[in-house]
Design goal:
Substrate binds at residues 163, 192, 249. The record marks 111 as: Important for acyl-CoA specificity. By secondary structure, this protein is of the alpha/beta class. It has ten helices and twelve strands. Strands 1, 2, 3, 4, 5, 6, 7, 8, 9, 10, 11 and 12 form a twelve-stranded mixed beta sheet that branches. Helix 1 packs across helix 3. The longest helix has 17 residues, at 278-294.
């Protein structure tokens, strides 16, 4: 089934070229069904790239999903055209009275800053507080996961000796979790970050469950016992060339950067990367939508 997004959003043409079913406003209005209402708080500087990646993952499901894009009002993006933002994004003041089936909070390249040094931190705290009463289930990604774990549960992020950068092997620690239904015993996911959260901090927090981890990359996924909050420390939505673009960007800037681990064949950055995370990334988003949003959200969102 389709995702319901504006016809003129740049992601629309990309997704349609990949044979992904994107529904028009007219067709959606004439279906006797309530679509899931999903809000995406996009904190990444490359907003068009990130919105396309996430919309691609949300699309492969038998559910109709109405997506709304949210940006911070307290920080002006320097990398996305204002016309795009004003055309396709809303601000928190415009949605604070609404309820949503799901919320996705993306990562952001600010993990070397303390949380309270991030310019939009107060606004993000307000949104995360609001999500407790206005959103059925929230999926936090990468830095968004670290921010959520700190804000909701007091778990500190820890600075790594060097950037965690590459594609890593993970294991499901709770095979009965519907989030990992259909996963292989070992799966792969990209990471690109300078900080982490510690496994013992997750395990010592009564309301949290650690559900997937990596011997190299550490904590991958945790959730609250009531399944209202999910925290994924990697980037299951990344495109095949995302890590390569990050690598060559830093090389061109003359920055010290290691070749992404387990990504280029033979660790040779001139070769085409082998994608090993696409199916697991797709399944994670699909399972979150199906088992933790669609099957448990009230039909009337005012009941949240």
């Amino acid at each position: 089934m389709p995702i319901k997004i504006p016809d003129s959003l740049p992601a629309t043409a990309v997704l349609e070229s990949e044979n992904i079913f994107v529904m028009t406003e007219y067709r959606a209005m004439h279906q006797d069904i309530r679509p899931l209402s999903v809000l995406i708080l996009n904190l990444m500087p490359t907003k068009i790239v990130t919105e396309t990646q996430i919309l691609r993952k949300l699309s492969n499901t038998p559910l109709q999903i109405k997506v709304e894009l949210l940006r911070t009002a307290s920080y002006q993006s320097q990398h996305t055209d204002e016309d795009h933002l004003s055309s396709f994004y809303t601000t928190f003041d415009q949605v604070r009275e609404q309820n949503f089936d799901g919320l996705i909070i993306t990562g952001a390249p600010v993990e070397n800053l303390e949380f309270d040094q991030v310019e939009y931190w107060p606004e993000l705290c307000e949104i995360m507080t609001w999500s407790r009463t206005h959103v059925h289930s929230t999926l936090h990604i990468c830095w968004g996961a670290q921010a959520g774990l700190y804000f909701h549960h007091g778990i500190q992020k820890r600075t790594l000796p060097q950037k965690l950068f590459g594609v890593y092997e993970h294991r499901v620690l709770k095979p009965s979790s519907p989030l990992f239904r259909g996963f292989d015993d070992v799966f792969y996911a990209p990471h690109s970050r300078y900080t982490e959260v510690w496994e013992q901090d997750i395990r010592s927090t009564p309301d949290l469950e650690l559900i997937a981890a990596s011997s190299e990359a550490g904590v991958y996924a945790a959730k609250t016992e009531d399944s209202r909050q999910f925290f994924v420390l990697g980037h299951p939505e990344y495109d095949p060339d995302t890590l390569a673009r990050e690598y060559w960007r830093d090389v061109d800037k003359g920055l010290e950067i290691a070749v992404p681990a387990h990504y280029f064949p033979g660790d040779d950055p001139t070769r085409v990367p082998v994608v090993r995370w696409r199916s697991a990334g797709q399944l994670l988003y699909t399972n979150w939508l199906n088992y933790y949003v669609y099957q448990t959200t009230p039909y009337d969102l005012k009941q949240l």
